[in-house]
Structure formats: C-alpha cells, structure tokens
Amino acid sequence: MDIEFNRNEDLLKQMVDELNHKLEKVQKGGGEKRIAREHEKGKLTARERIDYLLDKGSRFLEIGALAADGMYEEEGGCPSAGVVTGIGYVQGRMCVVVANDATVKAGAWFPMTAKKNLRAQEVAMDNHLPIIYLVDSAGVFLPKQDEIFPDKEHFGRQFRNNAKMSAMGIVQVAAIMGSCVAGGAYLPIMSDEALIVEQTGSIFLAGSYLVKAAIGEEVDNETLGGASTHCEISGVTDNKFESDGACLDAVKKIFDSLGEQEKAGFSRKKTVLPQKDEKEIFGLFPIDRGKPYDMREIIQRLVDGSAFNEYKSDYGKTLLCGTARIEGWSVGIVANQRKMVKTKKGEMQMGGVIYSDSADKAARFIMNCNQRKIPLLFLQDVSGFMVGKRAEHGGIIKDGAKMVNAMANSVVPKFTIIIGNSYGAGNYAMCGKAYDPRLIFSWPTAQMAVMSGSSAAKTLLQIKVASLKKAGKEITPEDEEKLLKEITEKYEEELSPYHAASRLWVDGVIDPLETRKIISMGIEAANFAPIKERFNVGVIQT
C-alpha cells in the first residue's frame, strides 16, 4: 500500500472514531443520573425497551440518531431529539419503532422531536411497515410551542398520519409506558391497539394541576388517567400490564399473529460478499476533496461479488450507471465518477461534474430501471452541473432537467448515500432529500451546501466588503483576511454532515462499512410496498 492510501485510511478511521464517540454519547440520552431515576421508578429506558422488544441478534437500523445534535443548547440540549426511531424486527416481522426518551426533558417534544416522529411515520407509510409507539412523554416543550404546534409539518401532523396509516391498512400498536399528555394522548388511542403499564403509565388531556386550574376539581393523576381508570372505567386503553417487560411481551404476541403482507416483488438472490475487500474503501477514498479517485473501485467494494454491470460505459463518463446486487437485492446504481475523463472527441471532463452527455445517460438509465422494477441507489460525490458558454450552448439545463424529471417521477424506491460532495443542483439531480429517497445517509466525509466552502466564502466576502464600503467604512487587506477566516469557519461548520444530520436533512451519518446493511434493509422494507403507480415522466426535455 502506498503512503497516500495509508494517510487516507488513518484519517477516515479517525472520522469514524469521532462518529462512534458522538453516537455513544447520544445513546446515553439525558445521562447516567436520569437513567438511574427511570430505573428507580421500575421503568426501562427507551433504548432498553427497544432492545427487549426486538428479536435477539436481529438488525436494527436507527434513523435520526444525531437529530438535534448541537441544537437547543440554551435549554441544555436534546440528545437524539428526545426520541429513538428506527427499523427493526419483532417476531420476524420488519417494523418501525418509535420510543420517547424520558431521560431527555421527560420526553418533551421539541421542534426536532416532531420532525423526527414525522420522519419515522413517513418511513412506515412509504414502505407499508407496521409501526410500534412506545409512549413516555410530558408533551410539548412549552417554551418552543410556536415552533411545534400550528403548522402543516408540526405536532398535529402525526395524528393526521395515524388516521391515514389506519386507512392504508398499516398496523399501529401503542404501549403507554409513562406520561401521555394533552394532544399527545391521541397518538396511542388512534392506534389499532393501546396497551398501558400499571402505576407508571398515564394518559389524559389535562393533568391534575391543569384540571384544578381550569375547573377547580382536585384529583390525582392515577385516578384521572391511570391504567385502572382507562382499562376498567373509560375503555380508552385495551389492556394493562404490571411492568414494562410484560407490556412489551404483549406487543410481541400481537406481532406474532399478524397476517402476511403483499410484496413488490424486487429481485433477490443469495447474498455474496464483495470480492474486493470492503475495508480498502478507507484507503481508496481521498480525504482531500481536490484529489481524483475512481468511483468504480468504491462500487466494487460495496456490491456482491464486486460485479458491476455498467450501462453505456464509454459515454457520459462523469456519471457511472449500472446494475449490481447488494446482499442479494438487485439495484440500479447512479454514481459520480471523480476522476478526470476524456471523451471520444478528445475533450477532458472534470470528475464530480455532471455534463450534458452524462445527464442524458443517467436519465435513460433511470427510466430503464423503472421499466424493469429495479430499485435505484445514488452515490453522491457531486460538485454540480457544468457551467460556461460551451455547456450552456450545448443545452446543459435541458439535459439536467431531463435527468431530474426521470429521477423525480421514478416509482421504484430510491436510496441515497452521500459519500463526498453534495453541492448545488447536483444534490437535486442525484436524489437529495427533496426527492423522496426512502433512506438517505451520509459518510463522515460528506459535505452538503449550495457550493463548496472556498467558493462560497469568497462570494460572501465580496458581498460583505461591498456592503461595508457602501456604508463608508474603509477595509484594509488585513480586515479582509480576518473576515474571510470568520466566514470560512462558519460556512465549513454548516457543510458538516453532522449539521445535516442534526436537522434531519439526512437520516444519519454512518461508517462506510454500514452501507451494504442500510441499502439491503431499505430495499427489504420497500419490498413490502407494491408499486401501484405507473411510471410517467410527463413532458420530457428533448
């Protein structure tokens, strides 16, 4: 191995270590003291409940682990947005699990909590997966109520989704394992079955303090909305259980009796490991964004048997298109080629840039995958579309629009992994979050923004300097240098994959070696949602 390979390997492993450190911290929720307090009440924590519920030794794909990372610092932070969500297996049945983390502000809903809950419901709806809610929440975090209560994608949307999922035939089971207050009380009760834990579980529209303030009535919370009240008097909940474990066992029994689901029928064969060592990705992927590399080498370490059947390999070379298998599942791959390429006409094309010929090729390939019912995987390391007179005269906007049209109207499931750059319209064409990928994850090496850090910083500096000069202020070269440093640092922070993950622009940041698992579980989930819609691109840009 050469020096460059070893350097890349060391740096990427350091980045994965940083990621693992962040995830370990997040998994402690509100901290050891808060975990101990839950245990004193006889309760399991959110993650302990999920561990107990899921099939032993089975996979769990966490979604939004880094949501709210670095946000709400004035309120003491909100690790993982105060809720744990993901895809797992209960009694062999793939499902979505949502568990409020009572160690984080008593499970109160922050704005990002609502966004994360809605993302979990979206995953269930897109893939027709059953969903389990493990409820333990003090309700809306009142100081932030204006950011969570009234808008379309706010708190109330989850109850709309409850109703829509029920109409779609998606199984919803709720276990009330702690507080369930105010509007939040509708979530478990709009589920198909609502279970409750004695002594610790409670559900009411208004707690005892608010009841006294509103109507002057004095009543304790257990009498007002405890397990006995709702199972024996109101009939709001279905069955009560003496402990978290007993309640979760009942959820397992429900899942053990579920009927078979329809399938989409995506092709799957026996899993074969890549022939080329996956771990070599660490050395092959350059940490220096200016360095070229061959994306084929990355793909060959992600796909079964390292077999990549390329489409139009000699045309539109800055995008690689082709079919492969990942853990047995057939998949169509669209990936940015990052090395310089030469066309048959002798023109040099820059790696990571989408040209007219590559956009044209990708559009056709995407349409072919829809015709053949093959899920799509986008591997992003894109700087954007080609610019300049030659590109504009060649119709780059028209060809880019064609690719976006085919991708946006795809009816096969789409998955996106951002491994490097994700800049500007390139993010859109390569199936960014706005284009409904079933799952979208980043490697620690990813960056997402309108443009690269250096380009943006220089542009922002010019705007700032012009504004200061207009105000009559003299700017020295030293002042400019200081301003550029400040602007660059801020912009670089916003480029970070953790900035994107904290806001749920991506579902998480992953070790590159997790990529195969994520795509495989994603296609397995998507296979439970038969394709009913006909592929139609509308008016194509010819």
From TrEMBL:
SUPFAM superfamilies: ClpP/crotonase. Its EC number is 6.-.-.-. It is an enzyme of class 6 (ligase). The chain crosses the membrane at residues 167-189. Keywords: Ligase, Membrane, Transmembrane, Transmembrane helix. Coiled coil: none annotated. Residues 12-270 form the CoA carboxyltransferase N-terminal domain. Pfam families: Carboxyl_trans. Residues 273-533 form the CoA carboxyltransferase C-terminal domain. One of its GO terms (molecular function) is ligase activity. This is Acyl-CoA carboxylase subunit beta. It comes from Echinicola jeungdonensis.
